[in-house]
Write a structure and sequence with these properties.
Blueprint: H1 24-35, E1 40-46, H2 52-62, E2 68-72, H3 82-93, H4 98-111, E3 115-119, H5 122-128, H6 130-140, E4 144-146, H7 156-165, E5 168-170, H8 179-187, E6 193-196, H9 212-222, E7 227-230, H10 236-242, E8 248-251, H11 253-261, H12 266-280, H13 287-298
Helix pairs in contact: 2-4, 2-12, 4-6, 6-7, 10-12, 11-12
């Protein structure tokens, strides 16, 4: 993604230490946004939705405005709301195969500077083979993987595979997690930590959770890794609110919803939605974020 005119160079150092090679592309993308004094944006779409050709066209257009592209592995998981579940069913019905994920990543990494992440449930990874999945994902240019239904106690095989491949292993945490367990989850994380912005499943219409600021502050006391906020961020105003505390805001259902509402030109609809969220995260719209970041840097 091109730097805004008059911004600091994208190579400026981030304000957290880069102590691990895992998720190197993700670190660079967030650092470039930080150098422009703004929160980074990630957009999520299941690979193959609504079909392979439209999916690739959409991903290319999203990569023109988003810092990070989160490639979804279609699967009807319980963390997803009806919008993403319907999109995943459509992609599966259209013939999605795991190889399509790696092909999409290879094409995007060759033509875009956006960092690539993958969100998947454990069952598809387990069926494909964790070591094989991690190796192919890294070779395709994916920086990190989020597996929200894989508890830490059962994650040793995946963490070893991700570490060996140089992938970031990104956990989804909860404000309801006991402090000792939260510390253990964060200690095992690489690349980034993902915090829920709202209560419930993806795409829910609820406001930003009042627990989000406290959860991010707690995470900041445990790790120097950047913190992402996602799940339920449905409007640019919500993204702007979450960006006061988070380093990366993740938007998925809003993009998919716009595509479903515009079946004659879903690619243009997705691109317009991504641009609206990008504009909401520009420094001019985030004076509170600048103060909050300054306080954190000085802490």
């Amino acid at each position: 993604m091109k730097a805004a005119a008059g911004s600091a160079p994208a190579s400026a150092l981030p304000w957290w230490p880069s102590t691990t090679p895992a998720g190197e592309g993700l670190t660079r993308a967030i650092a470039a946004a930080q150098a422009q004094e703004r929160c980074a944006l990630a957009t999520y779409v299941p690979v193959g939705f609504p079909d392979r050709i439209t999916s690739m066209d959409t991903l290319h257009r999203l990569a023109q405005s988003a810092d990070v592209i989160e490639l979804g592995v279609p699967f009807e998981g319980h963390f997803d709301g009806p919008v993403i579940q319907a999109a995943s069913r459509t992609a599966l019905d259209a013939g999605f195969l795991m190889q399509h994920l790696f092909e999409a990543a290879e094409e995007l990494s060759a033509s875009s500077s956006a960092a690539l992440l993958t969100m998947t449930y454990w069952q598809p990874v387990h069926a494909f083979g964790p070591v094989r999945f991690a190796a192919q994902a890294a070779a395709a240019g994916i920086s990190g993987v989020l597996i929200p239904d894989l508890p830490l106690e059962e994650a040793a095989e995946w963490l070893d595979a991700a570490r060996a491949a140089g992938l970031a292993a990104i956990p989804l945490v909860s404000a309801r997690t006991a402090p000792d367990r939260l510390a253990a989850i964060v200690a095992a994380a690489t690349g980034m930590v993902y915090a829920p912005a709202t209560d419930g499943v993806t795409g829910n219409p609820q406001p930003i959770s009042p627990r989000l600021p406290g959860l991010i502050a707690q995470l900041q006391s445990l790790t120097s890794l950047p913190i992402a906020a996602g799940i339920g961020i449905s409007t640019p105003a919500q993204a702007r609110a979450a960006a006061r505390w988070a380093d990366l805001v993740v938007v998925g259902s809003a993009v998919i919803r716009s595509m479903q509402a515009n079946p004659t030109d879903p690619v243009a609809a997705a691109a317009a939605t991504s641009r609206a969220f990008t504009e909401a995260l520009l420094p001019a719209h985030q004076p509170g974020r600048h103060r909050a970041r300054a306080q954190r840097t000085q802490a």
